[in-house]
Amino acid sequence: MLCDNNFPCTFALAAFRAKGILSAFVGNNTELVSQIVTEYTHFIKQTPIAKRIKNPLVIFFKRNFQTLQEEYDFAWQQIQKLHDSDIAKWPQHIPTDTNHHNWTFCFNDVELFFNVSCPHHILYKNRNLGKYMTFVINPRENFDYVASMKSKSGQMIRQNIRKRVQKYNNGHIPKELGFFGDVHNIEWRQYTLAEGNSRYASCPLKLHNAINSHNAQDVNIMNIDNRKCDTKNTDIKNINNNARVKA
What share of the chain is helix, strand, coil (3-state, %, to 5)? Predict the structure, then answer.
């Protein structure tokens, strides 16, 4: 998909061309997701934003689903498990009301945005990256850095991407897309875009204030180049060698 210059997200295209995408393939052992995202958030904290702006994390789930709703339900189960495994306190500046315009998902004290892409997306082709259900995870601050809602240039960049989405989707544009912080914006609805009967009346994620403990082992997430990746727990691949994911 990212070999197609018409793919609407120009930042994804830039990350792909720069060989900066970090990727992980997860099979039946979904417990690895917490380890992978923990390692990714450590990387975020330790690396200046300008040096990691082209390093989104892409997690491929090697599972078979019959419908988009099944994919979405599974996705939210994984996000819930991720939240439940978080040992960090929920950031005080982020509301716990998921319908608040300033709410965003947080893990390990890092604000994250989830793009859930699924094989059963038909209308929204920009959310169909091939035969695997996929998490595309970015630090939420990345969007403010490259296209701030507070600047005219940032607004123009986002509007241009919206137009590219509409064209790529043959005229269909998700109603959920918005700007973080805008009073009409609901962030969680942008994670899983409503298509057909696949939608939620309320956020599936149940937040809690309890601090859980878990023993997450380090997972080596490989950058997109030709280096070897030695990991015991997950299959990390060079995304440029698997660019054409769709069968």
Answer: 30, 15, 55
Please provide the average confidence, as pLDDT, over all residues in the chain: 81
Report the chain's terminal Cα–Cα distance, integer Å: 11
Q: What is the DSSP letter of 127?
A: G
Instruction: Decide the pairing of beta strands 22-26 and 57-61.
Output: parallel
107, two tokens: 């893990």
Cα 190 to Cα 67: distance, rounded to the nearest angstrom: 19
Residues 226, 238: contact at Cβ < 8 Å? yes
Closest CA to 183 of 115, 101, 110, 114: 101
pLDDT at residue 122 in the model: 92
pTM of the shown model: 0.81
Instruction: Name residues of the chain where pLDDT drops below 50.
Output: 210-220, 222-247
